[in-house]
Amino acid sequence: MAQSRAVVIGGGIGGLTAAAALHRDGWQVTVVERAHSLEPVGAAISLAPNALRALDVLGIGEEIRDLAAWQGDGGLRAPRGRWLSRSSAEAAAARFGGPLVLLHRATLVDSLAALLPPGTVRTAAAAALADPGDRDRPARVTIADDELEADLVVAADGVHSRARSLLFPGRPGAVYAGFTTWRLVLPVPGARFASHETWGRGRLWGTHPLKDGRVYAYAAATVPAGEHAPDDERAELLRRFGDWHDPIPAVLAAARAEDVLRHDVHHLAEPLPAFHHGRTALLGDAAHAMPPTLGQGGNQAIEDAVVLAFHARDLSAYTAARLPRTAAIARQAVRAARLSMADGRVTVAVRDTAIAVLSKAAPALLLRGFDGIADWRPPYASGRTPAGNHDRERT
């Protein structure tokens, strides 16, 4: 029997995870990425125990867990520095059966790419889904003047997915979530701090240590879509956050303008009717882009990938396994964004007081928000698709 062939559109974390999972299950895989390298756009990524269990299927979960950088208690703060709520990595690990790991995206990309045979990834290749296929004909992907046929196409082409528009032309696309984000990873000599996120009025900031000694910081603010700083984005961060508590001023003092990445946040406000059509499956942001307020965007893409590999012969089962879960998490992320990015003076005062009071009464309050998310486990033991079943229904 001929080896089944898969084409993955997009060489980000979700696409590479899917490629590695399919390769592990015996598929011939080609990854097409429009960028000139796999170096990811972005800074760091937070991997919760749910995503780490998915990476266990690929055999790299422990390798990634070794990058955890626990340095004591952390929690939620107000701009003047008052702690609203405290938590610890130990408490999270005990509740969800594993650590939260923060690492640079490039590190994860390198680990995933190392699982693939040489020549699997084609960079500088702008691919387009030409035909999603069906049970009687293969799917087709065009790349410049070339065309690839596949038994399975995985569209991991991001929040503004062209493949999604082709599969579901009548559905609304991604919409602006109402806020923009900044991210940076850099050394901050002498900085000593507890990992934290700080909520202000229509603004938030997070500062977290990485195991390699650098600091990952991110910020968000409610602004009109498409805005940019009149000078540079470091100067914009200084204007918005320069008078917030330590170590925020130290991080900004250590940053250069070129260290700061800024991106507006877009999400899918309405769930899709399915994550597949014909022989083509959507994955990650292409399927369920959500605000980053739960830190689950990349985690859910990794979950998608290993579940898709398991159900690669029956894409309706993939949709059934993933759509309800990701739709619920996306709704929760939207609610979390409304809470964290609230900007009314009275609303913020009530929010902060309620968090402080409830956290004292129930110290695990913030962790409870991740029940049913971080404790997820792959619904199978080995991660390998069942033998046979090559001709199951795909639509």
Brief summary of the model shown:
This protein has helices at residues 13-24, 49-58, 61-65, 89-96, 105-113, 162-167, 233-241, 248-254, 285-288, 297-310, 315-340, 345-361, 365-368; strands spanning 5-9, 28-32, 44-47, 73-77, 83-88, 101-104, 121-122, 127-131, 139-143, 146-150, 152-155, 175-186, 196-199, 203-209, 215-221, 261-267, 276-277, 280-282. By secondary structure, it is α/β, with parallel strands linked by helices.
- As laid out across the biggest beta sheet, the strand order is 5-4-13-14-15-12-16
Low-confidence stretches: 381-395
Spatial gap, N to C terminus: 23 Å
Radius of gyration: 21 Å
Report the sheet with the most strands, covering strand number, pairing sense and barrel closure. 7 strands, mixed
The total strand number stands at: 18
Q: Structural class of the helices, strands and pairings? A: alpha/beta
Quickly count the helices: 13
Arithmetic mean pLDDT: 92
